[in-house]
Structure formats: structure tokens, C-alpha cells
Amino acid sequence: MRLDRLLGDPLGAMLHLERWCNDGSPSGLSFGAYQVAVKHRPREGDPDFSVATYTVPWDRTELSLAAPSPEVAAAVLGDRGPLLAVHPDNPVTPPWPAGTALRAVPTASSRTVVALEPGPLLHVKLHYPGLLGRVPRELDAHRVRASVRMSSALEEIRELLPDSCAYLAETVGLVARVDGSDLGVIYREMAPRHSANGPRGAALVPFFALFSTDLYAPDDPPLLVQLLARGAPESSLRALLDLILESYAALVFGQGLVPEDHAQNLLLQLDRDGRPLRIVRRDLLDWYADLEIRRRRGLPTDFTRALEVAHDAERAHGGRSYAFDFRLGDYILDPILDCAARYLAIDRDAATEWIRHRIHTLAAHHDIELKDYFQPYDQTYRYKRSLRIWQNGRPLFHLAGPPTYR
After folding, report:
1. pLDDT tens, 250-273?
2. Fewer CB within 10 A of the terminal residue: the chain, N end or C end?
């Protein structure tokens, strides 16, 4: 895709990039292949499809809210009850009155769709009955509560975040019991939330689309190359990396909120002239609250997903390393540097050293010493390369090689 097309039609471009400019996950498990019905897949699927909705009586639902916009509240929270959207692959038919079906298109995650009609424009994260990739995708009460609670925590500290940092708020979650099982949905707003004083942005680009090939325009250079080549490539690269690292540090070291920063969950927001403006994070389900950091900052600790060094040091240190070394490092920083080195002859080793110095500086700004924060400091934690990444309620972290970016 060409940058001028992206700037001319941001929504259409984003929907295209989600489906057709994505080389896939390093895990090798992408796009819901062999699991999602063909017509509902991002790649082979129809241009759009219908998602059924049902009006659930208020006394039959568990509702979670995190400052929804008036438009979203009006669309989702009706007088007779909230609206439950159900993925068309789901074999369950809820026993409540049918509402207006959503005209939806899939994002790269398959079970999260963009609802185009009726308004407002929304991401809708749907319960999916089984595995997508290597993770169960059911939306039960625990998962819905965790997502909306994290959105609420971000809303509480939004004005404290730097201009480089924004998120897509998950403002309404509901769960109903159908045939003895939880059936949930999360409504995610599409306008990034950031500090009120921060500059307004324009187009959003999923990070995987920055360094992937557009299947409909395979001769176009990657979007990352087009962005960096508009100025001095090396300084442009460092400015982009600084957006990533500054926003990460503000959340993790400053607020004790640990995101899952892979190339699907991170979006780059551009200004109207096509300059990188800020990092926008989406999909809050797998974020953790780092309770040691939050206690140090005097912040609330009432989270269902938490890292607690005092009670489970191995899991907490595993989670910290997994978030930075594995997710951010392998899924974001590695492909960015690989792309910049391949197309623009940028020195990868020099860029890596710059990242190391910068993340130490940012940690120190938040009174964090990385050699205490990561333990053991000379090794990293990663998930095992297997379909199952959880065992007995614990992630299958294992100690791996030395760190690259710290």
C-alpha cells in the first residue's frame, strides 16, 4: 500500500491492511486457518458478514462498564437490556429477542470484528468456541471483567500518559449464561484515547502492516520504509523507536500496567501529514497489573490478572521478561530493525545498542533499575513453541538465552 492511499482513506486502508498486509505471526499460527469457517476468515473470507445480536434481560446478564462514550452506551445498552453479539460460528442460539444484526468485517484476529452498520463504528470482540492460534478464545466472565477493568485503570491515568501513548478503550463488556456456559462480548471503541492535551491523530496502522507485503500491491515498498524514507532514515527510525519505548515505559515502569505488545495489538497513529505521532494499544485482555510497581506508586491493586513478586517471584519475573524481551522484542523490535536494515541499510547493531541505552534511561526516569526489575538479568523468559501455552493455570514460561534489548 502507498502512504498517500492510507492518508486519503484511513478507515478503508486500515480494514485492507488487517486482512491483506500481514505476513503472519512468528508462531506460525495466524488468520484462524482450519478453525474459523472459510467465509469468516480474514484472508479467504467474504467482504463482510452478519453478526447476530440478542437483547438480554438485565437480570440475566453481568455488565462491566469503563466510561463508554454516549454513542456506544446508546447503541449497546437498550431499555430492555444490553446487546449480546454472537459470532456466526458459534452453535449456540441465545433464547432472547433478536436485535438488529451487525454488518461486520474481520480483523486479523478473526474473532474480533469491525461493526460497520448500524453505527457507531466499533470493534466487537466475540466469544469464540475453541482455539484460534494456540489460545482458547472463549469470553467468559473472568476474561470480560479483566478486560474492562484494565480499560478502567487506563481511563483513571489517561491524563498522566505522555503524548506518545494511547489505547482503544474496552468500555462495555457483558456476559450471559446460555446452556450452562458463559457467553460474553466486549465492545471496543475505535477512537484512540489519550491525554486531552495531546495532538489529534489521523490514520491508524497495525504494526504487522508496517513490515509486511500487501498481497494486492506486492511491488509497493513496506509502509515502514515509506515512512522512514520521508526524512533522514536513521533519525526517523530512532524517533519511531522512541515512541514505542517511551509509551511502554510510561505504562510498565510508571503505572505498573504490563501490556501484551505484539504486532497485532500495537497500532501506529500518524498525523494528517503522515508523520508517526503515537503508539495506540488495543486488546486489553492479556495485560497484567504489576502489583509491586503499583504499590510503590500508591495505585489500586484490585485486578484479576496480576504479577506479584512477593507471592510468586518466578511467574512475576517470567511475565516481565516475556512482555519486554519476547513480545516487544521478537514481535516488534526485531522485524522493525530487520526491515530497516534490509531496505535502508541502517546499521542493526547500532540501532540495537541505542535501544538498550534508551530503555535504561527511561527506566531510571521512573526510578526503576532494570537489573533489579528483570531477574535473572542475563537470561530471558519465553513461551514454549507448542500449541498449549498454559498448564495447570500457569503459563509455560521457560528460561532462554540472553536479552537483546536491555
Report:
1. 999 999 999 999 999 999 999 999
2. C
| Three-state secondary structure of the chain | CCHHHHHHCHHHHHHHHHHHCCCCCCCCCCCCCCCCCHHHCCCCCCCCEEEEEEECCHHHEEEEECCCCHHHHHHHECCCCEEEEECCCCCCCCCCCECCCEEEEECCCCCEEEEEECCCCEEEEECCCCEECCEECCCCHHHHHHHHHHHHHHHHHHHHCCCCEEECCEEEEEEEEECCEEEEEEEEECCCECCCCCCCCCCEEEHHHHCCCCCCCCCCCCHHHHHHCCCCHHHHHHHHHHHHHHHHHHHHHHHCEECCCCCCCEEEEECCCCCEEEEEECCCCCCEEEHHHHHHHCCCCCCCCEECCCCCHHHHHHHHHHHHHHHHHHHHHHHHHHHHHHHHCCCHHHHHHHHHHHHHHHHHHCCCCHHHHCCCCCCCEEECCCCCCEECCEECEEECCCCCCC
217-228: pLDDT as tens digits: 999 999 999 999
Q: Tell me if the pTM is above 0.85.
A: yes
